[in-house]
Amino acid sequence: MDAGNDNQPQNPDALWKYWFDLKTAARAKQWDVLRHQLAYAPDKPLAAHPFVTETFHAAANAGQDDILETLFERGFSLDAETLGETIKRVAIHYTADAAGIVRAIRAHKPEASVDDAVCTAAAKGRLDALQALDAAGADVRAGDSGFFVALYSAQPAVMHFLHEKGAQLYHPAMIAAQYGRRGELPAEKSAIAIDVYHELLAADNEAAGVLYAASGSAPKNVDELRENVAGEGAQMFTRLQLAVRAGRWDDVLRAAKADTKQNLQADDFLMPDGGGQRAFDVLAAQGKLSSLFDAALWYRAPQEVEKIYAATADFRAAAVCDFPALVAGMHRAQIDDLTPAADSFRLTRRRKP
User: Fold this and answer.
1) How far apart are CA 153 and CA 144, in angstroms?
2) pLDDT value at residue 294
3) Per-residue pLDDT, 14
4) What is the pLDDT at residue 301?
5) Looking at residue 345, what is its pLDDT?
6) Which residues of 199-224 are buried (b: 16+ CB within 10 A; e: fewer)?
7) DSSP code at position 344
8) What are phi and psi of 90, to 5 degrees?
9) Widest Cα–Cα separation across the chain
């Protein structure tokens, strides 16, 4: 091939033939020939002509990352969307060589997104593809999208991997998988997906369990539930927040119901803790949200539970509480609270006149 001997690199016909020769070598998978052609005519531009684009895609599919580097260095470019599609294709279909290809693309075109590749791999349970993307230095979380797709596709191995990479477990869309969005999970796998999600939540809160245990015996009243406990760094938690994270919700219920002087407030559940989460979010993620709407907890402060009920919209979870029934239950509890105990009445025998 004499493309490299052309002394007029800007001549359209000569360029066309040069690009055609590149494409021909790429189609034949003659990678050494292609490298020679590129090295022999280093001054010839490589525009996004269909022939050069085909060369690029063939080299990407074959794992020839050094050729991609040369193409980019010589001026070749594609739009970010096309490069994102290329990343997805090599990650899913040419996984063994994907890391080098993705690294080469993103080194020259950092705007090329990996999100579509991550979501496709997560949906298919392709842990190997995600590991290849991770090896290339890509953000395999894709924001929160990767874990979201893995959860809703019921892919346990991918969920574990993305959790290790720092996936956000408390995103409203993740929590909603147990409530208003549960029907979006595969019916035959929904229980597995939710079980894995709960396992990850428990693992995420092991440190909170240690802190809670070290904070003393179980709280006996609302004041003790509100005591502050220092966490890592400048993090601060109430004992209620730690109890919820540690899965000790029963301790909260016992202390709150035993206290006849103080009531829980909405802020006890809606105020972020030292880790940035609300106790309400953690309870919802654990699948325990319905137990929060207990008439015995709120009948002395019904306006507070209204605020908490409004927050169920965050997770499409309003159905966990029959609010009219809760209101009726609180009214009954208020009446019971005002009614003297039966043993305070004394019946006396009527005397005959």
Assistant:
1) 14
2) 96
3) 86
4) 95
5) 54
6) ebbeebbeebbebbeebeebbeebeb
7) G
8) -70, -35
9) 138
pTM score above 0.90? no
Alpha-carbon distance of 244 to 271, in angstroms, equals 13
| DSSP 8-state secondary structure symbol assigned to residue 272 | B
Structure confidence by residue, pLDDT tens digits, 9-40: 467 888 899 999 999 999 999 999 999 999 98
Percent of the chain, pLDDT > 70?
93
H-run or E-run covering 237: strand 236-238
What is 151-207 written as a DSSP string?
A: HHTT-HHHHHHHHHTT--TT-HHHHGGGTTTGGGS-TTTHHHHHHHHHHHHHHHTHH
CA 176 – CA 72 distance, rounded (Å):
44
Query: Taking Cα atoms as reference points, which of 283, 290, 305, 294 lies closest to residue 257?
Result: 294
Q: Is the dihedral of CA 72, 76, 80, 81 positive or negative?
A: negative
What count of other Cβ atoms lies within 10 Å of the Cβ of residue 327? 16
Long-range contacts of range 307-311, CB-CB < 8 Å, 24 or more positions apart?
A: 307/266, 307/270, 308/266, 308/269, 308/270, 308/280, 311/270, 311/280
Low-confidence ranges of the chain (pLDDT < 50): 1-9
Which of 137, 162, 135 lies closest to 148, judged by CA? 162
Domain ranges of the chain: 168-337
> Which H helix or E strand runs over 58?
helix 50-61
Distance CA(325)–CA(233), nearest Å, equals 44
Neighbour count for residue 10 (Cβ, 10 Å): 10
Q: If you search the block for the tokens 């309870």, which residue do you land on?
A: 283
